[in-house]
DNA sequence: GCATAAACTTGCATTCACTGCATATTTTCA
DNA sequence: TGAAAATATGCAGTGAATGCAAGTTTATGC
């Protein structure tokens, strides 16, 4: 099976790597096009293989499962130095810093806009895939919750002082991801025209409004 | 196939209904016990069927999928009148009202505590099941977001005034569910000893602390 | 009570996702 | 170029899931 099946195409890369990327892309394209045409459930792995000219075995070498060919590939975690900067960050607002970090990472997206949009459409019209996607996002949230915990610790907050510190971290992440979802939606709906700054500003306003105008129990 | 396969056992109910409930429970028990012993992936549907004395076909009549036998059964939505009360509610805090409504519903849980705990343990040690469970929770969140929207509308807030009203609703729900998760965790960890009031108070304090001490971007 | 309908269970055959293993085929690199 | 490493493929098998056409059990009207 391939050594690293998920690396994106690098221009001046070795032949092997470029072929790998091409195969990967061909399978994805075929999968998504077929599913948009016939519906996810009516597409078999064999159909995808035939359309993309690979054997079924190769398909499963690239994507461990049928769903794998349809979901976004990259792990979407920020590079380690960015994470470190966040953890050691002196910014007064965890929300602001976290939001900025995530926005910088996530909005990077696939170079291939057309494929990205096709996949987005497909996922959002296929409950099965949508659930998987949500699960993926959930895992990402867990990772970010870990970063927030690290930041708390770095700033001297411990479970000794605050027993439910981890819950606090999770809630912060949940809220920021809510805002992210909002951003992504607007971005997709608006045909990807807004700048990152505009989106961040809008989302930020939303969080502020919600939390400011509330009476707490 | 059974007419309504998911109804819980009613004491003075017809023989048929009681048998249905018994079969359902037997399958669940067998499934969870087997998985706790051998691991989810090493348990086949046939093994469950043999242990619970039903045919494979019957298994799939009851639970549409293998996973179905392991996940919590009920939809866990509050009864319509409670929902209506929430929507028309005059309470000044959506958070407080929503939290109270959810707490009242969710903490109801299965009559069978032992089975509940066994399932909980199994799910949290099986990534596959955990993802499914999260997806289920996600769907529930969607439903509640709908209720919050209805409440907004009822109180005269419209998308015309606030274009991102739905995002606001989703974030409210996300936050409250974060608190709920916290509550559930404490409840399970503490061997189900705390009263509902204690839990609600703790979660409420958590939300308050998080949002009060923040500087917003 | 009993016959008949309705609800429920089962067996069987089939499709499809997925895996392990052995065997080509291609790419790399000394 | 020729051996080694990386990929691709074929094949056989497992297990989940579904439709259909019987059986079997429970409910109901008389």
From TrEMBL, chains A, B:
Tree of life domain: Bacteria
Domain named HTH tetR-type: residues: 21-81
A molecular function GO annotation: DNA-binding transcription factor activity
Keyword Ribonucleoprotein recorded: no
UniProt KW keywords: DNA-binding, Transcription, Transcription regulation
This protein's record includes keyword DNA-binding: yes
SUPFAM superfamilies associated with the record: Homeodomain-like
DNA-binding region per UniProt: 44-63
PANTHER family (UniProt xref): HTH-TYPE TRANSCRIPTIONAL REGULATOR RUTR, MYCOFACTOCIN BIOSYNTHESIS TRANSCRIPTIONAL REGULATOR MFTR-RELATED
Protein name: TetR family transcriptional regulator
């Amino acid at each position: 099976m391939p050594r690293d099946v998920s690396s994106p195409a690098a221009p001046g890369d070795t032949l092997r790597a470029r072929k790998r990327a091409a195969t990967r892309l061909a399978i994805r394209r075929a999968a998504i096009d077929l599913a948009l045409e016939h519906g996810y459930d009516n597409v078999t792995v064999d159909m995808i293989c035939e359309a993309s000219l690979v054997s079924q075995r190769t398909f499963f070498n690239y994507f461990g499962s049928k769903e794998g060919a349809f979901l976004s590939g990259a792990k979407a975690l920020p590079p380690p130095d960015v994470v470190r900067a966040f953890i050691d960050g002196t910014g007064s607002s965890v929300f602001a810093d976290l939001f900025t970090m995530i926005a910088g990472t996530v909005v990077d997206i696939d170079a291939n806009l057309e494929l990205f949009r096709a996949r987005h459409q497909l996922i959002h019209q296929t409950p099965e895939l949508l659930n998987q996607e949500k699960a993926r996002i959930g895992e990402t949230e867990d990772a970010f919750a870990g970063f927030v915990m690290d930041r708390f610790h770095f700033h001297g907050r411990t479970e000794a002082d605050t027993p439910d510190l981890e819950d606090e971290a999770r809630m912060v992440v949940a809220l920021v991801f809510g805002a992210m979802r909002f951003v992504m939606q607007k971005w997709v709906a608006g045909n990807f025209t807004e700048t990152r700054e505009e989106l961040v500003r809008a989302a930020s306003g939303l969080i502020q409004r919600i939390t400011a105008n509330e009476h707490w129990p």
